[in-house]
């Protein structure tokens, strides 16, 4: 039998029995629980180290959205939002409840959305104590003593040890993450990757905010300068959102998910950061380094042999090693995490072809074109022996998280740009220079930081710009603190012809990809397209 506090929270989720319910435990209590249950180990900096199991990243092919009367016409169905039957959802839900019946469970009241007008009240049910700590860190924490016995706007049940039977449950394989907008519930099973929970709620807000609140949701990080000037950094995974938003000279608003309201500026959805720690160094990323301490989690890392010191260079589990910490573990984080409408918008791309300039300025056409394109390149793990970069076009720099058609978000961004005509839009290549992946090298983080700082401080206002011959974006002639010769990517290639060919072939990929939006594209957006044919025929 559950006590009344637990029962009030769990009965609406169909849960009436559990071995024990741990409700809203403190971080220290959750760390103790995780250690007691052998879910993890303590590192010598005080963080809890845990493994996510077979899944060390999200599994987009196993992410479903329940298709019913509520969503049939509003959600954009296709290879991203994979439809799931409502009956099958209910069946899985019941099975999960049954699975949890004899388990200790960790329940948490939290919320998402740092602007009270857009707050989403959450309830999370976890099989794992460390997952519940992840939710404490990553979602917003109710104020001390607040009554959180609310009816949630959305709930998550996350049971990594529960596996679906694809033959009867309607899943693709044993793991799944399913969003149900009618039941207001997310079910996650068969995977221990904690990011599924935060990205699940991101998916929910990506539906509700544009659809019901005329608010643009964005896969971006954000920070703000002393003068209140906000910057947002859009980018797919690994392009630098988290790293570049942690800037000792600017207040951190958030590292991954934000909303832009019709009148009140931007707000973070989350209460924490989820930073990659592969090859993390104190010298290059001091703020993230210092955030790894008691209360933080490190995922899928290993110790230096014979010590409890994390070996950030160790990729034996995955390249996607992570840390999750509450946002105030970053010194100059701003709470509540809200700020004015952005003055500068950065699109981050990790271009493995070494073609795009490390910094360029976009007019509205180029901005809309690049936003719809969402180009980056994923580089496969070197241990697989793959040397070819994998080109990715992910609309709005986050297509996998968007329940609505990408044009909905793009239209809203276009409207915001019209309403804020002074906003600057920059394209930053945090990827390769001096040749493609394999021949060139990754852009130095210190240079990328210097370029962003210069853009933010207005130091590029008086600089001369030239148009990139193929992409048409405006490339500055100089940037303080950055060697001039790297600003034009062609300079950095020893073989210029090869650069031109690679650039043309990337331009063609852009054009081919944009074919998807033929119905939507208008003259203004197409003016931002690269000159693929011209270059190819030259
Ligand atoms: N020039 C660069 N700009 C940004 N990040 C870089 C750069 N060079 C290397 N990196 C590394 O790339 C990774 C970027 O990851 P992260 O900031 O977590 O991306 P995101 O938050 O967009 O998923 C970090 O591990 C960072 O150290
Ligand atoms: C948590 C994630 O976000 P990002 O890599 O963009 O930080 C993810 O994509 O799993
Ligand atoms: Mn990130």
Automatic annotation (TrEMBL):
Gene3D superfamilies listed in its UniProt record: 3.90.228.20, Phosphoenolpyruvate Carboxykinase, domain 1, Phosphoenolpyruvate Carboxykinase, domain 2
Name of encoding gene: pckA
Molecular function in Gene Ontology: ATP binding; kinase activity; metal ion binding; phosphoenolpyruvate carboxykinase (ATP) activity
Pathway it works in: Carbohydrate biosynthesis; gluconeogenesis
Protein's UniProt name: Phosphoenolpyruvate carboxykinase (ATP)
Species: Hymenobacter lapidiphilus
Protein origin, superkingdom: Bacteria
One Gene Ontology term from the biological process aspect of the record: gluconeogenesis
Intracellular or extracellular location(s): Cytoplasm
Cofactor note: Binds 1 Mn(2+) ion per subunit.
Record: residues binding substrate: 58, 193, 199, 322
Catalytic reaction annotation: oxaloacetate + ATP = phosphoenolpyruvate + ADP + CO2
Keywords: ATP-binding, Cytoplasm, Decarboxylase, Gluconeogenesis, Kinase, Lyase, Manganese, Metal-binding, Nucleotide-binding, Pyruvate, Transferase
């Amino acid at each position: 039998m559950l006590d009344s506090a637990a029962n009030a929270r769990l009965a609406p989720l169909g849960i009436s029995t559990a071995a024990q319910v741990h409700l809203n435990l403190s971080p220290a209590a959750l760390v103790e629980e995780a250690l007691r249950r052998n879910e993890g180990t303590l590192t010598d900096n005080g963080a809890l180290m845990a493994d996510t199991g077979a899944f060390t990243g999200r599994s987009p092919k196993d992410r479903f959205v329940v298709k019913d009367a509520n969503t049939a016409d509003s959600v954009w169905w296709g290879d991203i939002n994979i439809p799931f039957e409502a009956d099958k959802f209910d069946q899985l839900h019941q099975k999960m409840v049954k699975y949890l019946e004899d388990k200790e469970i960790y329940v948490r009241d939290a919320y998402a959305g740092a602007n009270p007008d857009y707050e989403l009240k959450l309830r999370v049910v976890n099989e794992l104590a460390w997952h519940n700590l992840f939710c404490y860190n990553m979602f917003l924490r109710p104020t001390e003593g607040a009554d959180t016995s609310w009816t949630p706007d959305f709930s998550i049940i996350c049971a990594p040890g529960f596996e679906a039977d694809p033959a009867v449950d309607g899943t693709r394989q044993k793991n799944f993450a399913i969003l149900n907008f009618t039941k207001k519930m997310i079910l996650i099973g068969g995977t221990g990757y904690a990011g599924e929970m935060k990205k699940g709620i991101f998916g929910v807000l990506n539906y509700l905010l544009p659809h019901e609140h005329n608010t643009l949701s964005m896969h971006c990080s954000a920070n703000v300068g002393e003068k209140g000037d906000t910057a947002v950094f859009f980018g797919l995974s690994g392009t630098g959102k988290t790293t570049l938003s942690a800037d000792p000279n600017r207040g951190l608003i958030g590292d991954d998910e934000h909303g832009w309201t019709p009148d009140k500026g931007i707000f973070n959805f989350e209460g924490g950061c989820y930073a990659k720690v592969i090859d993390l160094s104190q010298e290059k990323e001091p703020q993230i380094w210092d955030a790894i301490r008691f209360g933080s989690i490190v995922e899928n890392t290993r110790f230096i042999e014979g010590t409890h010191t994390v070996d950030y260079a160790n990729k034996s589990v995955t390249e996607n090693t992570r840390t999750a910490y509450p946002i105030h573990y970053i010194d100059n984080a701003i709470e509540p995490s809200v700020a004015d409408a952005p003055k500068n918008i950065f699109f981050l791309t990790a271009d493995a072809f070494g073609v795009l300039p490390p910094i360029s300025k976009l007019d509205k056409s180029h901005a809309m074109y690049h936003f719809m394109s969402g180009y980056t390149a994923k580089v496969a793990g070197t241990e697989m022996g793959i040397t070819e970069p994998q080109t990715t076009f992910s609309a709005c720099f986050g297509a996998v998280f968007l329940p609505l058609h990408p044009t909905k978000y793009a239209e809203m961004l276009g409207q915001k740009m019209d309403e804020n005509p002074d906003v600057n839009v920059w394209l930053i290549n945090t990827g390769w220079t001096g040749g493609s992946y394999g021949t060139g090298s990754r852009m130095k983080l210190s240079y990328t930081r210097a370029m962003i700082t210069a853009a933010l401080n207005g130091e590029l206002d008086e600089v001369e710009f030239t148009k990139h011959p193929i992409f048409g974006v405006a490339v500055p002639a100089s940037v303080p603190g950055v060697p001039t010769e790297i600003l034009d990517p062609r300079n950095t290639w020893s073989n210029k012809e090869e650069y031109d060919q690679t650039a043309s072939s990337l331009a063609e990929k852009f054009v081919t990809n944009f074919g998807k939006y033929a119905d939507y594209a208008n003259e203004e957006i197409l003016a931002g397209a690269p000159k693929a044919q011209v270059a190819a025929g030259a």
